[in-house]
Design a protein that fits this description.
rod-shaped; mainly alpha; 2 domains; 143 residues
Length: 143
């Protein structure tokens, strides 16, 4: 009888320990969930200002157009090219060679911007896929 009573008592100890560990796991899960929700809210709140700052930094880092170096005697043209606001009178005063340089520069800018756009779209698609997977995981966990 003694060995059996010891076994039964050890089983009851295990049961309470498992219940306690389950409740601890559940509390740990809930605290982690609340922490992650708070972090997500904070990140979402900061997303817009951070995006604006990033756009400003990218604008400042944008290189000066090589056309500006090719047209040093026309500084206002260089500035207009950087702002992308050329006037018809500016174009009328230029030679065909200068216009061709501007056209070639614009074509290269278009090509590089298209490549950048494709890369950004691929990254966006990957992020959307990750987000969908996370949402499915969250839905599974909340059930």
């Amino acid at each position: 009888l003694l060995p059996q009573s010891k076994q039964s008592s050890s089983y009851s100890d295990r049961d309470t320990t498992e219940e306690e560990s389950e409740s601890l796991d559940e509390m740990d899960f809930l605290s982690r969930q609340k922490k992650l929700q708070a972090e997500a809210k904070m990140a979402l709140a900061m997303a817009k200002p951070m995006a604006k700052m990033q756009v400003e930094v990218e604008k400042q880092n944008r290189k000066k157009s090589p056309v500006a170096d090719l047209l040093p005697h026309m500084p206002h043209i260089s500035e207009c090219l950087m702002k992308r606001s050329l006037k018809p009178t500016d174009l009328r005063d230029m030679t065909i060679g200068q216009l061709q340089v501007i056209v070639n520069d614009l074509h290269s800018q278009i090509e590089s911007l298209n490549e950048e756009l494709v890369q950004l779209l691929l990254i966006r698609d990957e992020l959307h896929t990750e987000q969908d997977a996370m949402l499915v995981d969250i839905e599974d966990l909340t059930r």
